[in-house]
Write a structure and sequence with these properties.
The complex is a heterodimer.
Chain A: H1 2-35, E1 37-46, E2 49-50, E3 54-61, E4 65-69, E5 79-86, E6 92-98, E7 109-115, E8 124-129, E9 135-137, H2 143-155, E10 161-168, E11 171-179, E12 182-183, H3 184-195
Antiparallel strand pairs in A: 1-3, 1-10, 2-3, 3-9, 4-8, 5-6, 5-7, 7-8, 10-11, 11-12
Helix pairs in contact in A: 2-3
Chain B: H1 2-12, H2 18-60, H3 68-92, H4 97-121, H5 128-145, H6 149-167, H7 178-196, H8 201-218, H9 229-244, H10 247-250, H11 258-274, H12 277-285, H13 288-291, H14 297-315, H15 326-337, H16 342-365, H17 368-388, H18 393-421
The chains are: A alpha+beta, B mainly alpha.
């Protein structure tokens, strides 16, 4: 009987862990969304399909590199802390990267870097920063149309496509993807209405 | 059942007593009950898998019309249902295999569903490796708490996928080694199955999934000195052959003896691959000797597996089979291969000897399957040589005819021998 109670006790512990982990994922993201700093990142998406997670568009960012003097011996795939600034046109660019966590601000992103030209003769190295908010999930039947809407916006050079991202304390949450200030979901909804 | 009808006849004829008739009836009644139970278990598990997968697919649609809160609540719904079902099973139905296995299977998929839906709602970046790791860790305790073999099998499949994702399909990282720790997590259940229910279907499934998972995942250790992985794989396949030939498997159906099949086919497959010149040319001219180091994961894997295989041979009680010794001879051949191409010739000779040994073993035991396996090994060797040897068409043709005649002659002789013996 004690054995049975013990098993039940362990089961409750496991069940709580199973509830806690996804709940923690939600609370962390909600906190970033509520109190983080908002940035606009210029993007260029393509559309693969992930069997586990439905449909999404993959986003490639434009301003994701920084040239730095290689006096810190950066290695490929190492973890770095990145701060951002906003250009005059309103879009984000990389301000600074460091190996240590910034202590004076919460407005930074924890991510990994990739070395592009690890040429030892070069004084400067180009570091590509992994911007980890690279998936925007769409409803199954809309992902394809969203892709087409994006392709069209690429051909039309007057249109600007960007991602709205909230950043706080190392974490980032992708809020929306917009074409000329209109949410891609809204554009697809209107286009599907027009088709029907 | 026919035998049940015959019982009365046998009883009237005085061949069996009333008591014996009763015992026979009871035996068959029990057996029927058991197979009915087994059917329930199969349908219960299949149902839970289908419903679980169905829920994941429905969620994957990513309903835009629903608000974030509604979507999130829906994500937690299957998880809660699964947990309630498992809780109920633990309190009321702890002895029912059907309840334990089906409820756990459902909960297993529900955990995956909630993690993937939350990732989707919040556009959490897609790192399939960390997603699988989290899912498997949250489900590992279910194997022991629910005493569920299906959870164990799903877990083994999940961690193998995780090993592939981190080891083969993405940038090589230290994460790859996690697989071995995760595998250790499932082994106590395997041991319990072996002790308590060695003849069960779940045991047979585990006997297949575990060696396959290890074979698939071992390759993730390959880094700079990948050539050494061949030694690891030969030792691993050698170990499987030894396990497959152990007393435990001796009286089992060949198809249920996964260790023997995986070990034997793996050994022959590798030998055939290495019977070509290209591997040895590569080994000699490549940078193997420069990148070799004693601390490399490949060397450690090769060392550990070879020692384990030798220990197993030492404790083996049955007669030594030629397949079990390949790994031992391969090490000097590999070393020789660093200096000369003669190793390729030795490997070819080795395959030929194995083929001949198998044919002899089959003839001795009057086992057509083993004879033909030996013939197939030799045929495969000849086919391989056709690709790179500068033999004339006439010679190749003659060789094929000879092997074909060999097939006919051996099978015919053995069948004839059997007939005269009958």
């Amino acid at each position: 009987m004690i054995n049975r109670k013990l098993i039940l006790f362990f089961f409750i512990l496991v069940a709580l862990a199973q509830l806690y982990v996804p709940a923690k994922m939600i609370f962390d993201r909600e906190d970033v969304l509520a109190t983080g700093t908002e940035y606009k990142f210029k993007i260029a998406p393509i559309d693969p399909s992930d069997p586990f997670r439905g449909k999404y568009i993959t986003l490639n960012y434009v301003n994701n590199t920084i040239d730095v003097e290689d006096n810190q011996f950066w290695t490929d795939r190492e973890t770095v802390y990145v701060t951002f600034f906003t250009y005059d046109d309103g879009f984000a660019g990389i301000n600074n990267i460091s190996k240590e966590k910034p202590s004076n601000t919460q407005d930074f992103l924890k991510t990994k870097l990739r070395l592009t030209n690890p040429d030892i003769l070069d004084r400067f190295v180009k570091l590509v920063i992994d911007l980890p908010f690279d998936r925007f999930y769409m409803e199954e039947f809309k992902a394809n149309d969203a892709e087409q809407a994006y392709s069209k916006s690429l051909q039309d050079t007057s249109k600007v496509t960007y991602a709205l991202v909230m950043i706080k304390n190392g974490a980032a949450v992708l809020k929306d993807v917009l074409i000329d200030g209109v949410s891609i979901e809204e554009i697809v909804r209107l286009e599907q209405l027009n088709k029907n | 059942m026919k035998i049940l009808k015959d019982i009365d006849e046998l009883r009237y004829a005085g061949i069996i007593t009333n008591q014996e008739a009763f015992k026979i009836r009871e035996y068959y009644a029990e057996k029927a009950e058991l197979s009915k139970d087994r059917l329930f278990i199969v349908f219960g598990i299949l149902g839970a898998i289908l419903v679980g997968l169905g829920i994941i697919l429905i969620i994957a649609h990513n309903w835009d019309e629903l608000s974030k809160i509604t979507k999130t609540s829906f994500a937690f719904l299957p998880l809660l249902i699964g947990q309630i079902l498992c809780g109920f099973t633990l309190i009321k139905k702890q002895d029912s295999v059907v309840w334990r296995e089906s409820a756990t299977t459902f909960l297993f998929f529900a955990v995956g569903a909630v993690l993937s839906l939350v990732s989707q709602i919040y556009n959490i970046p897609g790192n399939l490796g960390s997603f699988m790791l989290l899912w498997m860790l949250l489900c590992l305790p279910l194997i022991y708490i629910m005493r569920s073999s299906v959870a164990s099998l799903l877990y083994l499949i999940g961690i193998t996928y995780y090993a592939c994702e981190t080891g083969y399909w993405s940038f090589h990282s230290s994460e790859t080694y996690f697989y071995w720790l995760l595998l250790l997590g499932a082994l106590p259940h395997y041991y319990l199955l072996f002790m308590k229910r060695p003849g069960s279907n779940f045991m047979i499934f585990h006997n297949w999934i575990i060696p396959l998972s290890i074979v698939i995942s071992l390759g993730t250790l390959a880094d700079n000195t990948a050539g050494l992985m061949y030694i690891s794989y030969f030792s691993l396949f050698g170990m499987f052959c030894i396990i497959g030939n152990s007393l435990f498997f001796e009286f089992q159906n060949t198809l249920n003896n996964a260790y023997k099949i995986v070990g034997s086919l793996g050994t022959i497959g590798l030998l055939l691959a290495l019977s070509f010149d290209w591997f040895w040319t590569d080994l000699r001219t490549g940078d193997f000797l420069y990148s070799f180091s004693i601390g490399s994961p490949e060397f450690l894997a090769a060392l550990i597996l070879t020692i384990l295989a030798l220990v197993l041979i030492f404790f083996q009680q049955s007669e030594l089979d030629i397949m079990e010794t390949v790994f031992f001879f391969f090490i000097p051949i590999f070393y020789l291969g660093l200096f000369t191409l003669f190793s390729a010739v030795l490997i070819n000779a080795f395959v030929l000897v194995i083929g001949i040994f198998k044919i002899m073993e089959g003839v001795k035991n009057d086992h057509l399957g083993i004879v033909n396996y030996g013939l197939l090994i030799i045929t495969a060797l000849i086919v391989c040589r056709f690709f790179d040897a500068d033999l004339s068409f006439i010679l190749r043709g003659i060789l094929f005819v000879l092997v074909g005649v060999g097939f006919f002659a051996t099978n015919y002789r053995m069948l004839k021998k059997r007939k005269t013996n009958d």
